[in-house]
């Protein structure tokens, strides 16, 4: 029996998710089918790759070494497949484009028409997920490019990071709140700051900008979207930071007031990232230029 690329891919995804159900969902197979393939790999190796811990799994020492070598094989296979399917520097299939939730609803309406107009030869499939999941998608080959708002870690797949533009933060309050302008972040009451739930990089950036300690940050209100937070702010139940690209959509409510921050303020750099081992770098650079030119203006 010989190891297959598919089996190595399944093992890599299971290691990243730590859960058979989530790994099966990402691999688009049933959980029993994925479990069977992992058992076959372990039979070939003669030892376990994973410790089963109830509903979760964890790599064994052998499994860590196996995955380190398997990822090298998968990267090489992915690069070879991309090279083989390439034609005139263009991918033959739609480009799998992932964006973080605090960017997708605000940037896509502006840049997608621009991409269609300037790069009509390209097709895209769009997905929205948190930064960690997008980076995992780049690593396991289920995504081609991702738009993120934080610097990727150095210990993952080798990535090209192309900065797009700066996205400053502003403070959103109820229209009835009396505040000075501009606002000093140190003047905000921590218990009134509304945050996205854990796992969003924008939550972490807000905590850092407002100098919230972890315990205070965890205890504050947590939401799954900026739109939900803005509704609470409009009703006078707290304040929040918003990225400037979100203002056209999120600050249209007459109950909301937007305030600039005292310098140096806070913000993030939005970047497009992709795997270093790709024959389509020139195409992705063209996408970068279109996004830079088509970015939304402050609302």
What's the arrangement of secondary structure elements?
Layout: H1 5-17, H2 20-27, H3 31-45, E1 50-53, E2 56-59, H4 61-85, E3 95-99, H5 104-118, E4 124-128, H6 131-140, E5 145-148, E6 159-174, E7 195-196, H7 201-209, H8 214-219, E8 222-223, H9 226-234, E9 240-243, H10 247-250, E10 256-259, E11 267-275, H11 281-294
Parallel strand pairs: 3-4, 3-5, 7-8
Antiparallel strand pairs: 1-2, 5-11, 6-9, 6-10, 6-11
Helix pairs in contact: 1-2, 1-3, 1-4, 2-3, 5-11
Structure in a nutshell:
The chain has 11 helices and 11 strands.
List its traits:
11 helices; two-stranded antiparallel ribbon; Arc Repressor Mutant, subunit A; 11 strands; 299 residues; alpha/beta; D-Maltodextrin-Binding Protein, domain 2
Folded structure, characterized:
This protein has 299 residues and is α/β, with parallel strands linked by helices. It folds into 3 domains: 81 residues, Winged helix-like DNA-binding domain superfamily/Winged helix DNA-binding domain (Arc Repressor Mutant, subunit A, Orthogonal Bundle); 85 residues, Periplasmic binding protein-like II (D-Maltodextrin-Binding Protein, domain 2), CATH 3.40.190.10; 102 residues, Periplasmic binding protein-like II (D-Maltodextrin-Binding Protein, domain 2, 3-Layer(aba) Sandwich). The chain has 11 helices and 11 strands. α5 links the parallel β3 and β4. About 2% of the residues have low confidence.
